[in-house]
Design goal:
The structure is a single chain. The chain is 17% helix and 30% strand. With 357 residues, the protein is an alpha+beta fold. The longest helix has 55 residues, at 13-67. It is elongated and about 120 Å long.
Length: 357
């Protein structure tokens, strides 16, 4: 039986063109959806990293500010012997100034003696600050035999975590002395020597000014400086400079931090430890009356979000500048247009200096 032949025919030119147009429309819609999703992912991921970096930076600064001026039971003593070579140490180890501020790479306020210049890499137009306190996590007590004289070595139980080159503070509740450990090779072994010389800054004298006995404690002296400088990748970052047995150590804490601005809360009236006015470092009338610090950060996304001059809630990419510290005036360092397709956000925190007496 022969099968009937079924007539076959292809698409007409019109049908083919219609099908191609429909396909292109579907492909364009899918491509547009993919591009928009990718752009939204980049924006959200960049904003998440911005917040993470800024919060990490703020956490580090806030902790150090809260600890500024902590000297244990030495808070109330007035007899402090500083054995360090001050010409080399500068004001880094001045226990009378637990906190200092600098504006736009200017000198520190209150002025250190001798003065210490801010880092040369610090960004012009931004602020910096330093803090000083005793690290409660690295300390040890004094064991017998006690010092036969004020220049003798100190004996401890060992296991303190202290090392040769560390700057330490020995104190009881009546007097204290700051010095650099010069030996032996392992101070954890139970003996701490404080001869003259040593690594930078070194001791100018080994006389601690007092014979310290069993009621005394040795704590590691902590010093940190926070400032803005060029990032190791691109843009700007928040840096922290500390001092340990190996000397000054600088670390890049958080990338994308473009500005650091500080206002210092001063108790100007009745001594109730409540700030009556917030001022820049150079305008503080009496640093003994500074009881709090307002910290402002301007953080920028690390990736170009290609979002133009739009806003995402509190996220700003503005052409009008930024009031980072909240004093009602835009920072001069950022008065120029910032319409560079990066998102920015301002972070602020007010910290009470709870160890100020």
């Amino acid at each position: 039986m022969k099968r009937a032949k079924v007539p076959t025919a292809g698409f007409s030119l019109v049908e083919l063109m219609v099908a191609m147009v429909i396909g292109l429309i579907v492909l364009g819609a899918a491509t547009s959806l993919f591009v928009d999703s990718k752009k939204n992912y980049v924006v959200q991921d960049s904003l998440a990293r911005l917040q993470e970096n800024a919060r990490f930076a703020m956490q580090k600064m806030v902790r150090d500010l809260r600890m500024a001026g902590y000297y244990g039971c030495a808070d109330d003593i007035t007899a402090i012997t500083n054995t360090l070579n001050q010409s080399a140490a500068g004001g880094s180890y001045d226990t009378s100034d637990p906190i200092q501020g600098s504006e736009s790479k200017s000198n520190w306020y209150p002025t250190a003696s001798p003065a210490v210049a801010p880092p040369t890499t610090m960004r012009t137009g931004t602020d910096a600050f330093t803090v000083r306190y005793l690290d409660p996590g690295i300390s040890t007590t004094i064991d017998s035999p006690f010092m036969p004289n004020t220049s003798a070595a100190l004996h401890t139980p060992g296991g303190s975590g202290l090392a040769v080159g560390d700057i330490v503070f020995i104190h009881d509740c009546s007097a204290g002395a700051i010095f650099q450990i010069t030996g032996p090779s392992d101070p954890n072994g139970g003996t701490i020597v404080h001869n003259t010389g040593g690594s930078t800054p070194g001791n100018s004298t080994k006389d601690l000014g007092k014979i310290f006995e069993g009621d005394a404690k040795i704590s590691k002296y902590y010093y940190a400086m926070y400032y803005i400088a060029p990032s190791t990748t691109a843009g700007w970052s928040l840096y922290r400079q500390t001092v340990n047995s190996a000397g000054a150590q600088t670390e890049e804490l958080a990338a994308g931090i473009e500005d650091l601005e500080l206002l210092y809360g001063e108790d100007t009236t009745n001594g109730d430890k409540v700030p009556d006015v917030y001022r820049k470092a150079s305008a503080v009338g009496n640093w003994d009356n500074v009881v709090s610090v307002r910290v402002g950060l301007l953080a920028r996304t690390l990736a170009n979000t290609d979002s133009g001059n739009t806003t995402h809630g509190a996220f700003l990419d503005t052409t009008t500048g930024y009031d980072v510290d909240g004093d009602g005036a835009n920072e001069t360092n950022f008065s120029a247009a910032q319409n560079d397709k990066y998102e920015r956000r301002i972070f602020r925190n007010t910290v009470t200096l709870r160890n100020r007496q």
